């Protein structure tokens, strides 16, 4: 078989109704998709240094996003190597996940870790720095097993040449083995500056009480490590090596009066982006508008011509409010489903009657109705890659089916429930059914003071509002 480049994979077409249709670059794993063959590249074997074959497959798998599967095999010495590499976009923030491992179920939790993930177990003083291991999909126990295998490597030779170090390593391996026996609970910490790591929630869609996830803002050094540079970084670079840099900025300043604020309200702006599903180039439309009795918002909509994916998102046009806001909406009749809802990207959702909680990043920002929010939550639970529908765990699939049945009862108004929207930034809105701005008897609005942790996540604790020009 002749080798093909990755670029050739992205230009594959399928014949639909007599016409040739471009296929997505990253496709779901499908047994019926015979065209999803791997790309073969001749490469050197790291064992015998003769020529072997590396196979690349661009795909999407559950519990992760877009990835590149890589498999190497040498026909001369038989050496094999398999690994994955994340091909998804870097998230806006890094993520720190702390899991308290107490039971065998916790040991069997699936874990996704990228190349930029630092792994820590404080109880045994274990730390695996970022970029020392390739990204993988494994389990909590698998992370421990891999650490044990790495420590056991060359241990026999070490016992002869450095006996004291070998004894210390054997003692440390015993401590790691004890973790697998769960003699005591321990904490697994994943800190990923790319934001592409994840730990399975076995109780999904209920809240994970043993796992805490915190998103954090990356430092300048961490952005540079990921290859992210802003305008200031580029201007501070060596101008002699980039003499035309100042003339080639993507963003150019406008002269005063060229573009007024009123012009922006009546204009639909377009910019190039990538499809969130198949990563094909497409355009996003953006418009600034005003929601009555609320504030200005930015509405963005994307349609992909390749896979047909349609997305819409709403971002607040103003700043963060002085207080957070929590809305409690009782869903009992048809009118309750028709309320207009603006959910910002910092707003989390909860339905106490179903013990269901959705984080702020799950659905993003959107302007819809109560029914639209419920349907979006239901569709994500049914179709999102964060749930293994092909899992061999029948109990997990049965629990999900029962939950979706209860969820459908809420949407069909057979069961009364409460939808809680909690936005620490105060940029969400729920319509009142009264003609005035006052809440009706089925809508409760509470404004509250943010906690230190909420201000930290919003980046408010380090803001300097006075004398900010002074270092």
UniProtKB/TrEMBL annotation:
InterPro entries: Znf_ZPR1, ZPR1, ZPR1_A/B_dom, ZPR1_jr_dom, ZPR1_Znf1/2. Keywords: Metal-binding, Repeat, Zinc, Zinc-finger. This is Zinc finger protein ZPR1. Residues 43-201, 273-432 form the Zinc finger ZPR1-type domain. GO terms for biological process: system development. Belongs to the ZPR1 family. NCBIfam families: ZPR1_znf. The keyword Transferase does not apply. GO terms for molecular function: zinc ion binding. One of its GO terms (cellular component) is nucleus.
């Amino acid at each position: 078989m002749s080798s093909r480049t990755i670029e050739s994979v992205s230009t594959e077409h399928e014949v639909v109704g007599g016409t040739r249709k471009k296929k997505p670059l990253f496709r779901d794993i499908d047994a019926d998709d015979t065209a999803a063959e791997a790309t073969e590249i001749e490469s050197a074997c790291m064992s015998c240094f003769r020529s072997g074959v590396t196979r690349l497959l661009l795909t999407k798998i559950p519990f992760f996003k877009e990835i590149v599967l890589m498999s190497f095999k040498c026909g001369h010495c038989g050496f094999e190597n398999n690994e994955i590499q994340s091909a998804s976009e870097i998230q806006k923030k890094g993520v720190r996940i702390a899991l308290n491992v107490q039971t065998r179920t916790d040991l069997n939790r699936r874990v996704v870790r990228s190349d930029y993930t630092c792994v820590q177990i404080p109880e045994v003083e274990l730390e695996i720095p970022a970029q020392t291991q390739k990204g993988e999909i494994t389990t909590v126990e698998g992370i421990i097993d891999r650490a044990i295998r790495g420590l056991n490597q060359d241990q026999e030779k070490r016992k002869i040449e450095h006996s004291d170090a070998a004894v210390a390593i054997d003692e440390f391996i015993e401590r790691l083995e004890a973790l697998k026996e769960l003699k005591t609970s321990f904490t697994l910490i994943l800190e990923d500056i790319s934001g592409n790591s994840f730990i399975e929630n076995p109780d999904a869609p209920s809240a994970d009480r043993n796992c805490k996830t915190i998103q954090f803002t990356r430092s300048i050094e961490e952005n540079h490590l990921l290859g992210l540079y802003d305008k200031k970084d580029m201007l501070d670079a060596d101008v002699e090596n980039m003499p035309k840099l100042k003339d080639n900025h993507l963003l150019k300043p406008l002269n005063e009066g060229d573009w007024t604020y009123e012009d922006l309200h009546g204009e639909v702006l377009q910019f190039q982006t990538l499809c969130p599903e198949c990563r094909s180039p497409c355009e996003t439309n953006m418009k600034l508008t005003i929601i009555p009795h609320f504030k200005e918002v930015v509405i963005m909509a994307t349609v992909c011509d390749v896979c047909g994916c349609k997305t819409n998102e709403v971002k607040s046009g103003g700043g963060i409010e002085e207080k957070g806001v929590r809305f409690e909406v009782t869903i009992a009749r048809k009118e309750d489903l028709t309320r207009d809802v603006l959910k910002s990207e910092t707003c989390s959702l909860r339905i106490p009657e179903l013990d269901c909680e959705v984080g702020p990043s799950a659905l993003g920002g959107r302007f819809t109705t109560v029914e639209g929010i419920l349907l979006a939550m239901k569709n994500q639970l049914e179709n999102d890659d964060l749930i293994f529908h092909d899992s061999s765990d029948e109990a997990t699939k049965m629990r999900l089916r029962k939950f979706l049945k209860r969820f459908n009862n809420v949407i069909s108004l057979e069961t009364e429930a409460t939808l809680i929207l909690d936005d620490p930034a105060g940029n969400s809105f729920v319509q009142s059914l009264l003609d005035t701005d006052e809440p009706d008897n089925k809508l409760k609005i509470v404004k509250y003071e943010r906690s230190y942790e909420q201000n930290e996540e919003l980046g408010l604790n380090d803001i300097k509002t006075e004398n900010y020009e002074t270092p």
